[in-house]
Amino acid sequence: MSVVTLTINDKLVSAPRTATLLDAIQDQGIDVPTLCHLKGLSERGGCRLCVVEVEGSPRLAASCVTPVAEGMVIRTHTEKIIKYRRQMIELLLAERNHVCAVCVQNGNCELQTLAAKLGVTSVRYDYICPDLPMDASHERFVMDHNRCVLCGRCNRVCDEVEGAHTLDMAGRGIHSKVIAGMNQPWGTSRSCTSCGKCVQVCPTGALFKKGSTAAEMKKQHDFLLWILDGREKKIWRWS
Amino acid sequence: MPEASPKKDAGNGKPAADPRYKGIDRVLKRQQYKQDALIEVLTAAQEAFGYLPEEVMIYIARQLKLPFSWVYGVATFYHFFSLKPQGKHNAIVCLGTACYVGRANEIVDAISKEFNVDPGQTTPDGELTLTTTRCLGCCGLAPVVVFENQVLGKESPDTTVDKIRSVLSGAAPAATGATRVEQEEPLPA
Amino acid sequence: MAQSELDRQKQFRCRMLVCASTPCISSGALAVEEALKKAVEAEGLQTEIETVATGCLGPCSRGPLVTVQYEGQPDVAYEGVTVEIAPFLLAKHAKGLLVPELDNKAIPADWPFFAKQKKLVLAESGTVDPEKLESYVARGGYSALGQTLREMTPEEVCNEMVKSGLRGRGGAGFPTGLKWNMVRKAPGERKYVVANGDEGDPGAYMDRTLMESDPHRVLEGMAIAGFAVGADQGYIYVRGEYPLAAKRLEKAIRQAERKGLLGSRILDSNFNFRIDIRMGAGAFVCGEETALMQSIMGRRGQPVPRPPYPANRGLWGGPTLINNVETFGNITTIITKGATFYAAYGTEKSKGAKIFALAGKVNNTGLIEVTIGITLREIVFDIGGGIRGGRPFKAAQTGGPSGGCIPSEYLVTPIDYETLQRLGSIMGSGGLIVMDDQSCMPDVAKFFMEFCMDESCGKCGPCRGGTVQMHRILGKITNGSATMEDLSKLEELCIMVKETSLCGLGMTAPNPIYSTLRYFRDEYEAHIRDHHCPAGVCQFTEKPLRIAVA
Amino acid sequence: MATSTSSKPRLATVWLGGCAGCHMSLLDLDERIVDVLNLVDLVYSPIADIKHFPEGVDVTLVEGSVCNEENLHLARELRKKSKLVVAFGDCAVTGNVPMMRNRLKLEGIISAVYTEPFYREGPGPVPQPESGAIPALLPKVVPLHGVIPVDVFLPGCPPSPDRIWAAINAILSGGPIELPVEMRTFG
Q: Are A116 and D187 a contacting pair, CB within 8 Å?
């Protein structure tokens, strides 16, 4: 495998030519915040939390979608970037109704954890407080748009791994919304296999198992690599 | 919100003899049922029906073999598509920069107040839809309003409201210098 | 074909050219054309006088415009022609009668609006009949395509573009030749050429005018590009609000295909090139190239991260050349007149002429084409005829929602890509809105931010949430409930959204705020501190909820 | 307590629109509450019967979000009279549960609570704000920093006694108030 060398935070490192910047950064044990990225799913490059400074480039690069290149010089935690990341989290917290105290995912939420990690102790922007519904029509799961950060993980897992494409994004801008089928109650969609993958990959309490109450919902996404490795690399065989 | 009935997933949703499906079928055929023609097909549907009824979107999804949520997602992304029926008359106020600088928002407010309809909405009696748009490219004539498919230039709140009122009350549209905008001709199959 | 059309035109002693682009049509141009035709018929002069519906002439606010070309006389253009006075044109020119009603309607030949312009792309738009291929060919149309196919290699075409110094007219000003070479060299079985006609900037309509007025010029430019980069399929993406442009392009494509100027084996060469029209459906973000490609492929018009760049992986994975419609409009001029001719216009780094849509508080609004490097003063005061009502000039807004405002102290600066950027604005697609002292800068910034908020696709967080928050803060500033802290929050947001957004929409969305803050900060502060709107636009109905730091 | 003239820092705690859970959590400091009271003078608090917010307060812990005119008035007053203001708990920091009414129309909220069939057995007729019986609701609930500058944010619903203890210690020792990651999560 051919390899490139690059400098991350003043340290010379090597990475496979096919790697993304994020791969290379995480290989070094550096913790860069991510939200829409999830190993196993295609990259969306939407949350912008993983932006890094690339020397010689006028723009910041979202590391999850930027390929490594020979001689790149990267900084992952400059003062400026940390400030931007905080602002991004504040924007996310302000745009929907993230009431952690009464959320099923309280204590296990990626957004909540990121906010604490990045030192977001308050949101300086106006809370928009949109009037969003909850969809509890599914027999096993609930979709709560109030907690959604529009990362699109659920859409991607539904399309790429489950192959159902029940979920997609409708509308645009601040009015974007995850929908099932023809924006119909989730439970009435015939393409949904109720596999629950979307629920497991959701970083917040926007998708959860019915019956869970505040702080009860925990998620795991190990299954993703399990399934994908099994499919692509044919690792798991029983005969 | 569509009602919670699973039956709409079944069947192909096309009433046996609704002539309005013909326009859709023609575009489908011309585009050889290619999935990337979705926007063209939705445009044809919007023209035929005046909006995109759910069963029409289901029909299109089935014809193009696309997931429902995909079709719905595309239909709601673009401002041209409306999922609600439009009013019998449509007043479009341009809110491009030149029109804005010419205080076109006062025209919107005036119509809104006079006919009790919010921008983007239709009056309850289905008579008038008030829409705003971003630049019709007639900046030299700002502020511009399109009503009954006529581009009206150099409007003011009073003149616009008067024109709309006279049409809604059944009188003929007030004679202005304006002429009908040419409509897009149906493309040959 | 060119000859036969010229012969046909020669039969007429007089041609009456009626501008039939959207603004003139809405001023009643079609009725005027009808009236003229009737008058000609009534006089029995059908064989001597031809009435032609042409493309745009420029001064849109003065429409309907009619140009009379009479054998042996200088051409005269008339403004504000009505159905009533249209027959007088005949009386004056064909019969030589004195018609006082027309005297003040005639536009003097040395009117600065025309005299100060340099028309390269719009050269023919006021004389050709956009619905007739013959009319275009008679004016030398498609000779550039023939010349390329016969005499040039793709490499030579690309190099000619490099030499001409032409830069993308969509806004960013990327060198066109460089882009063509990138696509030409990119490996890929199928390549595509896309003309970006999704002109979404409010206040800009040069692309629409070009497509409506001279559609064949755009098609020819695309075909030459297709030859140069090795593509056999082109798409022209027309904004949904432009049905007339789409109709005329569609007609033009069919005419060209019938004559073997598009399609298979063009002009008996081995070059095949098809062009299809794709209609936009109302999304400003689709002017961004990756979003535009998504839309062409029938998807939600959300941008995708670059790299890979379209030049390497674009439509259906193939290398794709995307240029603005106006850029394609320049190609034929460069081929027929040569790169050196073209490069003689403009400045050191920005060559040629640029079309601007001049609007706002100037006396003469309309479409103008000027050499790059002209000063703002010349545009506003000479071509534009000064500010309406003699009020003072305050600022000119260029580049639409991605651009900024230029205050009066820079009236003398030559306009090109670099200076505009340095002043905190951009060339953009060429909208130029002039504002007087009755325009409120925070209010204008709010207007543009509302636009960006509505048009944000929602994919990336900074743009989706940032535009909403910036709009809120501007709303507070203009209604009186903001504090000075809000102003610093606004500035911080501007920088963050600009630097972290996924695509050009988000990266440039803060520009209108940023540039107005730069030049008109005192106006913002007057709003916040004194609840005073110097322009008298804002109504201060609210009070700040938060008290200031003790 | 309030009349003490000692040189100990003067502490106030305020209860705006919240459930009092944060104050409960404060009391949950158990025996550490005695330590706290040894370190400070408690000059105003819902757990002490003092009518007016005093002058010259060093530290004020504010629980709850700003929901009505009275909250707004008190918040402004305490800001004027306090050196350091702490947004105490999620309602003060983020708006939290009280803010969930922001998506509803203001009209009808009070009558929904007092008279709608579901609650009919509740308090009775709708009190009119004009009568002075209840303070008028603000159009939107806002977190504390929406109306006054806040110096320290102590999130949590409620903040655990350990968090409170850590924060109070940091404040009283005059050091920088930098809580560890696990002590600054919302919720």
A: no
- Number of compact structural domains in chain A: 2
Domain contains A206: yes
CATH number at residue A51: 3.10.20.740
Question: Mutating which of D94, D96, D157 best tests the A interface, going by the most A Cβ atoms within 10 A?
Answer: D94
Instruction: List chain A residues with CB under 8 Å of D186.
Output: 98, 100-101, 112, 115-116
Helix, strand, coil proportions of chain D in percent (round to 5)?
A: 35, 20, 40
Instruction: Give CA–CA dist D153/B41, Å, rounded.
Output: 54
3-state percent helix, strand, coil for chain B, nearest multiple of 5: 45, 10, 45
**Residues A89 and A170 placed together within one structural domain of the fold:** yes
ipTM reported for the complex, 2 dp: 0.92
What are the chain A neighbours of B6 within 8 Å (beta carbons)? 188, 190
Is residue A228 in a domain? no
List the single residue in C with minimal CA-CA distance to D143. C546
User: Where a domain ends, among A51, A77, A103?
Assistant: A77
The shortest C-alpha distance from C261 to chain A (Å) reads: 40
Mean pLDDT computed over C355-376 = 92
**Cβ–Cβ gap B5/A188 under 8 Å:** yes
Residue C64 preceded by cis peptide, ω within 30: yes
Separation of alpha carbons A88 and A47, rounded Å: 8
Which amino acid is residue A203, in one-letter code?
P
Domains of chain C: 2-109 (3.40.30.10), 140-343 (3.40.50.11540), 353-436 (3.10.20.600), 442-529 (1.20.1440.230)
Residue numbers of the domain that contains A13:
3-77
Helix (H) or strand (E) holding C167: none
Enumerate long-range contacts of C12-15, CB under 8 Å, 24 or more apart: C12/C47, C12/C48, C12/C49, C12/C50, C13/C48, C13/C49, C13/C70, C13/C71, C14/C48, C14/C49, C14/C50, C14/C68, C14/C69, C14/C70, C14/C71, C14/C93, C14/C94, C15/C49, C15/C50, C15/C51, C15/C52, C15/C68, C15/C69
- Whether the CB of C213 is below 8 Å from some CB of chain B: the reply is no
CATH number at residue A148: 3.30.70.20
Least CA distance to B10: which residue of chain A?
A190
Q: Is C546 on the interface with D (CB under 8 A)?
A: yes
User: From CA A85, how far away is CA A83, in angstroms rounded?
Assistant: 5
Would the pLDDT of A185 be above 60? yes
pLDDT band at C44 (very low <50, low <70, confident <90, very high): confident
The H or E element containing residue C136 is helix C133-138
The Cα–Cα gap between C85 and C102 comes to 8
Class of domain D10-103+137-183: alpha beta
- Decide: C286 and C295 in contact? Cβ < 8 Å: yes
Interface of C with B in 58-97 (CB under 8 A): 59-61, 63, 82
Contact A45 C304 (CB under 8 A): yes
Whether there are 3 or more C-beta pairs closer than 8 Å between A and C is yes
Distance CA C159, CA C177 (A): 6
Q: What is the pTM of this model?
A: 0.92
* In chain D, domain spans: 10-103+137-183
In this complex, do A121 and D93 lie within 8 Å of one another by their Cβ atoms? yes
Provide the pLDDT for residue B170. Answer: 75
Q: Using CB atoms, which residue from B1, B5, B69 is nearest to A168?
A: B69
Structure confidence by residue, pLDDT tens digits, C193-202: 999 999 888 8
Question: Is residue A66 domain-resident?
Answer: yes
Amino acid identity, residue C544?
Answer: P
| Nearest chain D CA: its distance from C282 CA (Å) | 29
Residues of C with CB under 8 A from a CB of A: 283, 300, 304-305, 307, 453-462, 464-469, 472, 489, 492-493, 496, 499-502, 507
Three-state secondary-structure class, residue C359:
strand
The class level of CATH for B89-172 reads alpha beta
